[in-house]
Amino acid sequence: MDIRRIIFIKKSPFRMEYLFLLQLNGNENMIRFTGLESRTDKESINSKVVNDTIVTNFLEHFFRIVSNWNDTYINKNTLDATTWNIVIEYKNGKQKEYQGVDSYPINFDSLERLIDKTIKEIGGD
Amino acid sequence: MNLLEIDTKKYIPKILEAVIETWGEEYRYILVEKANKIKNINYIDERGILHYHRFLENCIQKYLSLKFLEEIGVDTSQDDKNLGLPLDSNTKEQMNQYFGNRCIFSPDFWKDAKGIFAFDKEVIEDFRKTSVEEGQIEFLNPLRGNSEITISNYEQFKQTKEYSKLLKQIHHYLDIYKKLDHEMKKYNKKIQKYSDYVDSEDKRKERILDLKRCELYQEIESELPESLRKYLDLKYQTLEQKLRFLFPELDEKSYIEFFSKKDEDNLETETCNVYALRLCYLRRVGIHNNLNIYDNSKEKYEECLKQPGTQEFIPSFELVDKITRTREKKYEEGIKEFIFTSQTFLENFGQMDNLEETKEYVYNLILNRTKVANIPLADEKNNYPAIFFPIRPSYNGILDLAYIHEFIHALLYFSLYDNRWGSGFDICDDDPALLNPYRLNKRKYERLNETITDIYAVKVKNILHKKGIYLFEPKELVNEDNSAWNNTSLIVRKMLNPFLEKFHHEVILSLVTANYSILLDKVGSENFEELNDCINKVDYLIDCGLNLENPEHKPELIIEYKKEMSRLEKIYHNMDNRIQVVTEAHK
């Protein structure tokens, strides 16, 4: 696929920024992520080189989960808002973005589970 | 501690007492009255439980690692004894020396010829002699502080007294490990209820969604392209097989749905992933078996389209649209049923008015992971503050603080007209005039209010913990590092401390009565607005990466920060001046 990278960032009030980044570099694909349990920026971001099977499987599910989402989900009638943001960057410079403030697509949980599963597969958290 | 049976209501009297101790006995009556109105909704978030289970496994790993090192005489005093924090790097290195770079006190651990396990009886029996000896030498050399032992002289070394002495020592280490490993297994059995719960809930959800998938198939089957129907009938005997093929997951767009009008329109302008997923469909229907999972190009797709028979499997836009709408509807129905029929939801919903309207309202709040909300109860014609407190994936080590924070929000809740509401200094509204000018996704008074709430939440938590009262988690799991609480920064909390100390009575009275004129009359509304703006600005600088410990990182932010600090000093000075002028005038 002509994707350069996919970045998922979630900022919830009680923890450090959560990052999951899939970088496709042709020969070497990489996933960078913060541990789900980490709460301070003292804890480093993990990096793992991943094989094509993991990438293909992740991308297939990822696009099937997000492709019907709206661009934004905003709920202002709330306290302690969690903000999230997904950016898909393509090799041709184009990008697609999804974002939300305390509001989520109904299958958002499926995306988080996919990320958990992928991290577990690469021996992360 | 049982995270599956958390009853937050029982903690409220203790928290309330600590709040009264912080804010003043004179507010007891009003605070008790406000606390009585709070609804607690303690549903269970399976993913949160799963993560907490992993957190507990990590805690026991740290506990047993430290215990192992202590028992063999290694000094671990430099390591933070809080089990929720990772092992200190020196301690980790010590562990690596004895066990190799692995998590030994983990249920997934299996022994191999590394570290002291190279001397374990079972490993010696199970592994090749050369691997065992290499592992033994790899362990012995650093222990002796040199690299004198090699494969060629190892047999000779084994005849020495030194070796016998070392072997005795290593067997002693192995005995300690076995004892601790048993302790780990006992503990993991104790916490297995969490993974069992998640498994059973996952299965329950799957059963519900499976039924919804059947309904989906029944609704669209007659409209599927004839070739596809024939293919399904020929290839799959059961409905379950057909479903797995056509709609593998109800929460994900199925391959056939990538032939939608929207995807067609975006083919040239957006991405190539549509080609990849369409090719997946064609591969799955078996007409292009030569395609592999990495085929995703436009050229490949167009080549497939030209082949005879392909077009017959391609659905119309109308059909795809119907499939998508029906699938999304069925998925939502399934999720609703899953939530509505969960034991915890049923128990919690009992305290509501039991009207469908309220049920639907609460469902949406759960879906949006709401923490504190306004709940209009139709039969009582009243609005109530509600705290939603499932264990979330990020709450480990800070459950007490997280709940106290939400409790303070709920305590300072006030209801406005048209179901509008607020808490403390913040009004939950999307009025453009009430936006934070520096961070447009925040409200004007949101960061000030969050910071004040955090300052008080930390004070209340400290009071309870100093008295030995731990609510959700035992002491050894609690992370007491208040800077680790990422909602608001210590920098802004420090900025507000003088204000909260000096105008304690006015701030608290305004907050608990939701009558802000008391405070504004005292400090001057223009000064209060200026203070709020100053907090918003510094909060924004922090969001941009302000780092006071490393001034060379983004120095332009440090310059801005210093300007704001001078401004803050002036604001506090103006507040003092105003008080002086008003006092003089009264004289």
Give the secondary structure arrangement, pairings included.
The complex is a heterodimer of chains A (125) and B (587).
Chain A: E1 3-11, E2 18-25, E3 28-33, E4 46-50, H1 52-66, E5 72-74, E6 83-90, E7 95-101, H2 108-121
Parallel strand pairs in A: 5-7
Antiparallel strand pairs in A: 1-2, 1-6, 2-3, 3-4, 6-7
Helix pairs in contact in A: 1-2
Chain B: H1 12-23, H2 28-37, E1 39-41, H3 46-71, H4 89-99, H5 121-126, H6 129-144, H7 151-157, H8 161-190, H9 192-220, H10 226-235, H11 239-246, H12 261-266, H13 273-284, H14 298-306, H15 317-340, H16 343-349, H17 356-367, E2 372-377, E3 382-388, H18 399-411, E4 413-415, E5 421-423, E6 426-428, H19 446-466, H20 490-502, H21 504-513, H22 517-523, H23 525-543, H24 555-586
Parallel strand pairs in B: 1-3
Antiparallel strand pairs in B: 2-3, 4-5, 5-6
Helix pairs in contact in B: 1-19, 3-8, 3-9, 9-15, 13-14, 18-19, 19-20, 21-22, 22-23, 23-24
What is this entry, summarized?
With 125 residues, chain A is an alpha+beta fold. Chain A has helices at residues 52-66, 108-121; strands spanning 3-11, 18-25, 28-33, 46-50, 72-74, 83-90, 95-101. Chain A is globular.
| Overall shape of chain A | globular
| Distance separating the two termini of chain B | 59 Å
Tell me the strand percentage band of chain A. 35-45%
Percent helix range of chain B: 55-70%
Unreliable residue stretches of chain A: none
Strand content of chain B: under 5%
> Would you list the SSEs of chain A in sequence order as H and E?
EEEEHEEEH
Q: Helical region count of chain B?
A: 24
Q: How many discrete structural domains of chain A? A: 1
- Enumerate the strands of the largest sheet of chain A in spatial order, edge to edge or round the barrel: 4-3-2-1-6-7-5
CATH names the topology of chain A as Mago nashi protein
Residues in helices of chain A, as a percent range = 10-25%
Oligomer classification: heterodimer
- The number of helical segments of chain A is 2
The best one-word shape of chain B is globular
The computed structural class of chain A is: alpha+beta
Global mean pLDDT of chain A: 86
